[in-house]
Amino acid sequence: MRSLSLRLYGVVTWLMQPLLRRKLRRRAVAEPGYAVAVEERFGHYPTTPGGTDWCWIHAVSLGEARAAGILIEELRRQAPGIRLLLTHGTATGRDEGAKLLQPGDVQVWQPWDMPAAVARFLDRFSPRIGVLMETEVWPEMTAACAERGIPLVLANARLNAKSLASAERLGWLARPAYSSLRAVWAQTEADSHRLVSLGANVTGIFGNMKFDAAPEPRQLATAANLRANLPKPVIVFASSRDGEEQQLLEVLKRFGATAPVPPAHAAIKSIAQRVHDVQWMIVPRHPQRFDEVAALVEANGFAVARRSAVNQDQGEAEIWLGDSLGEMALYYGLAHVALLGGSFEPLGGQNLIEAAACGCPIVMGPSTFNFAEAAELSLAAGASVRANDMEQAVKLALQLVADPARHEAMVQAALAFSSSNRGAAQRTAEALLAIAEPVGPEL
């Protein structure tokens, strides 16, 4: 019999349906993908291929979908013919997940976490096993899978201290949800301890699957060709978040980036000269902010050239804007140094692993709690440096550009850091198949 707390939670999620529909309509104005197949979010799915041997993988957003892609590639290698059911929660996640599909696979929205929608989802697909990527643990879904005997696992699992505190405040929901999972495979020892404190059955610490991703060779080749012909080295602000671009622009203005190029001196170059000696580039984390950031750059007195404006003269702009998806390897390949987005506001930082795989040195800000262990390991390996604020970060990046020997040492350290942390995808796929295969050979 279900607990009173779970039944109350089910009532609340049912009552929230109108708010969810309104939120989706609003999001669809900026991102049309949120208007696609809305009824799937409430458990109403179109006719799809039959069968009950689905390997269901839930990747809520872009980062999780990319991690899922790494796992899926390894699963197809170990279990050819595996049938995949992909679910997502965001438009960018669904777009990225669509690239992973093969004939016979199915992609739908994750149902809203209320009893009726979850029941319709499980009735329709009856997956052999469910794999939640990284952080997505919902009380109704975990309870329903446990009641039906569907093994549900959390892969590439991470839980920072802030998220743990939030979960503990809702412990009456979180603890039963985490304890219902068949297995949890954590990224780090620290993640494992936090997950266990919520009742999770952590059966392995496998590392971060994102280390197993190889940068797109064509993008790196394109970047190398472009970089060889650029008149200036490039500093990229990668995966920047709201509020951070303004910080960078204010620092550049204080350092004279909007003033005429200062006269050269034979002795040590001034900070203003060094700011003019590099090409600055901003790559926002969220695509719905591309236009907003372009307008922000111009409002601060800078000329901007957008990646999407292929006929624009990129060389005339002080700031380049990377307004495209799926090209981070190109941007990191272009960059001599990258500033780490999400780390200059209290947001926990974005993932620095892809930068390391591209051999791009990183300057990170003070906030990296989302990827705490990866950040500390990269610092220890010499692949990154930490700044206290944006002004110091800009100075450190300029120093790296001006010091070829140190820059090359950090490039090699980044590549070594990336290669030494691989193998999580293979370990995860083996553990997943060990749980799924005893049910039958079809998966």
Automatic annotation (TrEMBL):
Quote the subcellular location field of this record: Cell membrane
Matching entries from Pfam families are given as: Glycos_transf_N
Q: GO: which molecular function terms?
A: Kdo transferase activity
Q: In which pathway does it act?
A: Bacterial outer membrane biogenesis; LPS core biosynthesis
Catalyses: lipid IVA (E. coli) + CMP-3-deoxy-beta-D-manno-octulosonate = alpha-Kdo-(2->6)-lipid IVA (E. coli) + CMP + H(+)
Any idea of its EC number? 2.4.99.12
| Keywords recorded for this protein, A-Z | Cell membrane, Glycosyltransferase, Lipopolysaccharide biosynthesis, Membrane, Transferase
Q: Which residues form the 3-deoxy-D-manno-octulosonic-acid transferase N-terminal domain?
A: 38-213
Q: Which InterPro entries match?
A: Glycos_transf_N, Glycos_transf_N_sf, Kdotransferase
Keyword check for Cell membrane: yes
Keyword Membrane annotated = yes
Annotated function: Involved in lipopolysaccharide (LPS) biosynthesis. Catalyzes the transfer of 3-deoxy-D-manno-octulosonate (Kdo) residue(s) from CMP-Kdo to lipid IV(A), the tetraacyldisaccharide-1,4'-bisphosphate precursor of lipid A.
Recorded family membership? Belongs to the glycosyltransferase group 1 family.
Q: What is this protein called?
A: 3-deoxy-D-manno-octulosonic acid transferase
